[in-house]
Predict the 3D structure of the following.
Amino acid sequence: MSANTDELFGIYVHWPFCAAKCPYCDFNSHVHRGAFDEADFVQAYERELAHFAALTPGRTVQSVFFGGGTPSLMEPRSVEAILSAIARHWLVDPRAEITLEANPTSVEANRFRGYRAAGVNRVSLGVQALRDQPLAELGRRHTVDEAIAAVRLAQSIFDRTSFDLIYARPGQTLEDWEHELTEGLWLARDHISLYQLTIEEGTRYFDLHRAGKLRMPDEDLSADFYELTQELTAKIGMPAYEISNHARRGQESRHNLLYWRYGEYVGVGPGAHGRLLINNQRHATATEKLPFEWHKRVGAYGHGMIVDDVLTWEEQGDEFLVMGLRLREGIDPKRFSRLSGRQISSQQISELRGYGFVETLPNGNIRVTDRGWPVLDAVVADLAA
Ligand SMILES: C[S@@+](CC[C@H](N)C(=O)[O-])C[C@H]1O[C@@H](n2cnc3c(N)ncnc32)[C@H](O)[C@@H]1O
Ligand code: SF4
C-alpha cells in the first residue's frame, strides 16, 4: 500500500452508546436507558452499508474501524453481522485491519474472544490514566488494575493492540506524567495514543473550566508535556507518526493513516462522517447524530445521511493539508496540486523553512518539524493561503 494515494478505502462504523458520559468527552455518545433491541439496530447498519455500497462499487476494503461511543458494549454477534454485511458488499483484503475500540472494564474484556472470532484483529483500549484518583475524576468506570488486566488480556488474544492515555490533566505535574508514561510504555506493545486533554465546548469540563475549577497547564507547561512525551516515546522506539499517535515501525493504525492520507471511507451509524469518490468528485457525507432519529431515517430511506456535499477543489486542498500535515511522513505537494488545482507557494515554504517550522524530505514531501508541531494550525493556514 503506497502512501498518499487515492486508492485507500476503509469503513468506519460508529456505535454511539456508552454506559456513562465522561465529563471531558464531546464525541457523539449517548447513554441509553431502558429496553433496546440491539439486533434491530444492527439491521439498520446492514441497510445503511448496502446504501453506501451501491455508491462505491468495486472497491477493496483495507480497513474497518468500530469506533464510538463504546463499541465494546456490542455483542460479538452484532460485530460479526456487520462484518459479514461488509464482506457481502465489497471485496475485503485478506490482510485488512479490523479494529474495535474498547473500554477496559472486566465486563467488556469478557467479550474480547468473541470479537476475535467475529474477525476483529486489532483492539484499541481507552485506558486514559494509570492512576486511580485521576481515573475517578475523569468519570471512568474502571480502575488501574482492571485496565492493566484488560490490556494484557487483549495482548494475549489479538496480534495488534493499542491503548489511549490522556495527559496534561488538571493538577498533573511533569514528573507525575514522566512516571505514568514510563509505566504506560512498559505495558504498550506496538502502538499507543497519547492525547493532551482538550476542553471541549458542551462538556461538563467546559463548565468547570469556565468556573475556574480546573487547574489546567499553561501554554509553556503544555509544550513541556508534549516535548517530554516525544522524548520518552522516541527513546523506546515508538516515535510519533502523527501528533498523538506512536507506533513501532509497521504497526501504525492503517485506518487512521487512511484519514490522514486523505483516502476514501464510508461512515455508517449515527453521526458518522465519510469521504466518497463518486464520478471523480469527492463527497463529504455525514449521518444523523441522534441514534433513534438515525434509526428512523434508515427505516424510511435506507440510510441516515443528512449531509452529502461535493467538495470544491479548494476545500479538498485545505482538507488534504489539515489531515496530511499531522503526519511525520508529511504531504506530497504534487498530490496537493492534483486535488486542489493550485500549487503551494514556494515563497511560503521557504519562509516557513526559514523559521524552522517545515522541512522538505528527500522524496519531495513537505513535513512539519518538531519546532513547527506546536504551531501546526498556523503552518497549515500559511500553506493553504
Ligand atoms: C471515541 S473516544 C473513546 C473510546 C472509548 N469509548 C473509551 O472511552 O475508552 C477515543 C479517545 O479520545 C480521547 N479523548 C476523548 N475526549 C478527549 C478530550 N477531551 N481530550 C483528550 N482526549 C480525549 C480518549 O483518549 C479516548 O479514548
Ligand atoms: S470517552 Fe468513551 S466512554 Fe467516555 S463518553 Fe466518550 S466515548 Fe463514551
User: Anything to note?
Assistant: Residues 18, 21-22, 25, 27, 29, 68-70, 103, 126 surround iron/sulfur cluster (ligand 2) (CB under 6 Å). Residues 73 and 107 are 9 Å apart (CA to CA).
